[in-house]
Specification:
254 residues, two-stranded antiparallel ribbon, single chain, nine-stranded mixed beta sheet
């Protein structure tokens, strides 16, 4: 009787967690399906211009985005809903990581600018958590040719899996990878009410809970609630706890 009761409790817990995960996924999909994308494009363009103006004033902290080359309305674009992890300091390995997900109000969407073959040439709106505009070939001199090629193909490769929605989270970006290096794990997608992490260097895919349990220490999960402050808004600090975005930095379109 004890064993039967125990298995029933485990089954009930698993069922509850599955339902909670589905609720989170449904919320993300509903938000995306009802998003006023023109409003977000206007906000993203303003951020790019603001960073350009600051760089033009001789503030060496800022790169100079090529504003004359950017047209987010005419380029082929893929909107990736940007999420963050909140209150993960209380996470334990019996928890469902989905229940610690929220939409990142300081970013909301990161845009992949792609060509007709779905190759990415740039990211707009805080790629890697920092940059208002990021040219894949030009803005990361430490990436080798193969790394750049794989990053440029990330959207094309994710779309091969017929995702319902593509997600991005920069706090997953600098996680220890599968072969002992720092890998690009910020890209995710939703399919069949689950979130999958797409590992850029080798194309391997993991369900989010499995990914966290397989590759993250508890300490690393607890630190998922720390995010980069975008360069545009940095002062003396470059990180902060998630859920503490100042009102003037929030990008939500009502």
């Amino acid at each position: 009787m004890y064993m039967k009761t125990r298995y029933l409790l485990i089954f009930a817990m698993f069922t509850y967690q599955s339902l909670q995960s589905q609720n989170v996924v449904s919320t993300l999909k509903n938000f995306y399906n009802n998003a006023p994308f023109d409003c977000y494009i206007d906000k993203i363009k303003k951020n790019i211009l603001d960073e350009y103006n600051l760089s033009s004033q001789g503030l060496t902290l800022f790169r100079k985005p090529p504003v004359n080359e950017i047209n987010l309305r005419s380029d082929n674009t893929v909107f990736m809903l940007t999420i963050q992890f909140v209150k993960t300091e209380s996470f334990n390995y019996n928890d469902d990581i989905y229940n610690y997900i929220s939409i990142d109000s300081s970013r909301v969407f990161t845009i992949a600018c792609v060509d007709k073959m779905m190759n990415v040439h740039a990211f707009a709106n805080y790629f890697e958590g920092l940059y208002t505009y990021y040219d894949v070939k030009r803005d990361h001199p430490n990436r080798n040719y193969l790394s750049i090629k794989k990053l440029s193909q990330v959207i094309k490769n994710i779309k091969k899996h017929d995702p319902e929605l593509i997600l991005y989270c920069h706090t997953l970006l600098s996680s220890r990878g599968l072969v002992g290096r720092w890998d690009d794990n910020g890209f995710m997608y939703i399919k069949d009410n689950k979130i999958y992490v797409y590992n850029v260097p080798d194309g391997k895919i993991f369900e989010l809970n499995d990914f966290v349990h397989k590759f993250y220490s508890l300490e690393r999960v607890h630190n998922l609630n720390v995010e980069f402050i975008p360069i545009l808004h940095q002062d003396c600090k470059n990180t902060r706890r998630t859920g503490h975005t100042p009102e003037n930095e929030k990008m939500m379109c009502q």
